[in-house]
Input
Amino acid sequence: MAISFDKVNYTYQPNTPFESRALFDIDLDVADGSFTALVGHTGSGKSTLLQHLNALLLPTSGTVTVGETVIKPDSKAKAIKPVRQKVGVVFQFPETQLFDETVLKDVAFGPQNFGVSKEDAQTIAREKLNLVGISDELFERSPFELSGGQMRRVAIAGILAMNPSVLVLDEPTAGLDPKARIDMMRLFETIHASGVTTILVTHLMDDVADYADTMYVLEKGRIVKSGKPQDLFQDVDFMTAHQLGVPKATRFALLLRARGQYFEHLPITRSALVEMITEAANHG
Amino acid sequence: MQKILEIKNLTYQYEESSDIYAVNDVSFDVFRGEWVSIIGRNGSGKSTTARLIDGLMAAASGEIIIDGQTLTEKNVWELRQKVGMVFQNPDNQFVGSTVEDDVAFGMENHGVPREEMLARVNAALERVNMQEFKTKEPARLSGGQKQRVAIAGIVALRPDIIILDEATSMLDPKGRLEIIQVVREIKEQYGLTVISITHDLDEASLSDKIIVMRDGKIEQIATPDALFLNHNLVDIGLDVPFSANVARELRQNGLQIPEKYYTESELADFLWQSLLTK
Output
């Protein structure tokens, strides 16, 4: 499902002494089926923008179009309810949102809340829990007895149980160990491959390079750059000046370039880097 | 050397009836002024151990001796003053509306007189290089700045032990480096003992010793050098250095690269001199 922002502005607490503008004329297009990365620093407006993706915030001016639904400053709660089901947001540390007695009940809660029968909801819950790698023997346990990594998987299953067409991920691997981080990103890759439009908010440029096909750079509430990661990371000076940095592979290629190696394009993934070095070593 | 912390046969279960132990018969000693890293995969019991030491949870059995005193329900408040903890997510640990209020909060709780409190707030903020942000709102700071404020709040309380519970894991490389640098400096200045729970190879490599945990147990205690030489790093919950991965994949492609550890610049030097300029 596609999402587009048209001249979206957002101001917190307008017309009060605390008025503070967070988004400025945001134009953004998330194509159906794409894997879009949103990068920027703390305070860049990422979180505010993210909350517009499923209408947790309504724009102060401008429109957000999610599939068929147009979200306007004066949209009514009833009109935007379908958006909540279609756009699943995995907030940072989603495990803090777990609440139910058992893992299975927790995951089944969402669909039940949207009118699915208890039995069907539990069937969906089982399927999604297995998808995220939670095995059957944990279904009847309290979610609070699980490890941090497992809790996060349960929380993600809870969001997938709504069968969203768009999955929004806010720093989804923060705090996971390196192995769990790789497994988690592979999980999102699989979900994306099944046709779910994916939006990743991250400060890890390696993840952007490895998974995203489109990226937006946000700074002080404005989009300052957008395009394909492969193109944006060529502008190393820009990425460095904005303190975002470049993927490790690009950084390593720069070390070789400084020593005299020629690169037509800087690689952004490790596999591309290894391939370029192998090629250069074999054929000079 | 003096033992600042002794852990003896520590055990913890999240559910009494189950036979799953989050911490299972864990024992180790930490000496004053040491920097100890605890590593391991998620769910290995690292954070639970840290929370037990700070008295945030009570152990099922075993003993925690902090600076010569056994931790009990009665003295937990007193002993907790000796242990400062910095958590993973900076946003979850702010209470003050300004940076200085936040740093002062812990001291207010401990009844430090106002005059002294003001002096300590200033000194602590200066120490972490956040003096100029004194009157700013914590929410407006970057992740690295927030963690520095959190550390200032702890420094101001003058603990003996500072526990970093993945305190740098949400930061970018620059923020991470800032924090490590600050912690090193305060460790030297105040003779603090540092216990760092981490997945970061660089951070772990700074420590005097590394405790590897797996499934609630201590798998081994070793120096960084001994550990890194003999282990699959991912398997013990650490990141493999990028240069090691590149070298391995180039070897797989048939390039002749000696089997040793290269830093990124060393690898770039080797590749350029030996393989790319022919």
